[in-house]
Structure formats: structure tokens, C-alpha cells
Design goal:
Elements (H helix, E strand, L loop, with lengths): L2 H12 L4 H8 L3 H17 L19 H10 L5 H10 L6 H12 L8 E9 L6 E8 L4 E6 L1 H4 L4 H4 L1
Antiparallel strand pairs: 1-2, 2-3
Helix pairs in contact: 1-2, 1-3, 2-3, 4-6
Length: about 160
């Protein structure tokens, strides 16, 4: 079996065609089609698919200054972003204010995995054609979050959150 026929089998299978239909249209036995698909599955499991590995991202300009930011935020938790920008510029930072502000926001008050939130209030807006709900959530670490939830998603919330 040549590579062209093998790729045709795989293309048809990933296109949603059944193995029986593939065998009939390409004049192959069903066993041959099953063997090609099994070999492909095995190659994918081993990581040898011919697809190049994903490219590494180039990172952010702020990455090199993250330890400096953490150090300043641990000593001075209320330090402004402008002051942190000045400190980073002294150390050679050439990036902008916005990307630094976004990173500082992540560093200041992250919501750790496994933390729980408590619904503090639920408000129903719009009784017409497009109703929606505003759900306020308070996290363990003091961070607050306001969610705008459409009715079809509101139905998925736990019952105690709706009350």
C-alpha cells in the first residue's frame, strides 16, 4: 500500500466516513482499512505523526523582571504600577505600562486552584426577550468577581448559588 492510499484512508476516516464505506469505495478489504487506522492510532500514541512539535512562545518582556516584581510586591504590597514601572526601568525594562499592569494584577491577588467562592448576590435583569443575571462572587482570598450570566447558563449553577 502506498502513502497516497494510506493518507486517503485517513482523510476519509477523519472526514466522518465509516471503515466499511472506505473499504468499498477504495476497493480494499475492511481488514486492511482497520490495519491502517490501527497503525495510525499507534503512531499517534507514540508521538510519531509527522506533525512538527508546537513552537515555543517567545515569552513576555516582563518575564525577566518577574522576580523583581515579586520582591517589591512582597515588601510593599500597595506599591503602584507606575512606581513598579519606574523601578523596572532603572533595571533595564523597555516594555510598556499595560503589559506590566496586567502581570502585576496576576501577581498581586491570584485565585489559587481549589479555592472556593461564595455567591453574595444574584440579580435578575430584563424580563423581556433577552433576560440575564448578575452573580457576585467573593473568593476566599478577598478577591471579588461579578459574572453576567445568560439564562441558559444560569440554569447550570448549583441550586444554593441561585438563592
Amino acid at each position: 500500500m502506498n502513502d497516497e492510499l494510506r493518507s486517503d484512508v485517513l482523510r476519509r476516516k477523519y472526514g466522518g466516513q465509516s471503515g466499511r464505506d472506505i473499504a468499498r469505495e477504495l476497493h480494499l478489504s475492511r481488514k486492511t482499512v482497520a490495519k491502517v487506522l490501527a497503525e495510525h492510532r499507534q503512531q499517534r500514541a507514540q508521538g510519531a505523526t509527522g506533525v512538527p512539535p508546537p513552537r515555543q512562545g517567545r515569552g513576555s518582556m516582563v518575564d525577566a523582571y518577574e522576580s523583581t516584581l515579586r520582591d517589591f510586591l512582597s515588601r510593599y504590597p500597595d506599591m503602584t504600577v507606575v512606581r513598579l514601572l519606574e523601578e523596572c526601568r532603572v533595571r533595564g525594562y523597555a516594555g510598556g505600562y499595560t503589559v506590566l499592569r496586567q502581570r502585576i494584577k496576576q501577581l498581586r491577588n491570584p485565585i489559587p486552584a481549589g479555592s472556593t467562592g461564595t455567591v453574595t448576590s444574584v440579580r435578575n435583569y430584563g424580563a423581556g426577550r433577552e433576560p440575564w443575571f448578575q452573580v457576585d462572587v467573593a473568593w476566599d482570598n478577598g478577591r471579588k468577581l461579578m459574572l453576567v450570566v445568560p439564562p441558559n447558563q444560569f440554569a447550570l449553577l448549583p441550586r444554593d448559588a441561585k438563592e
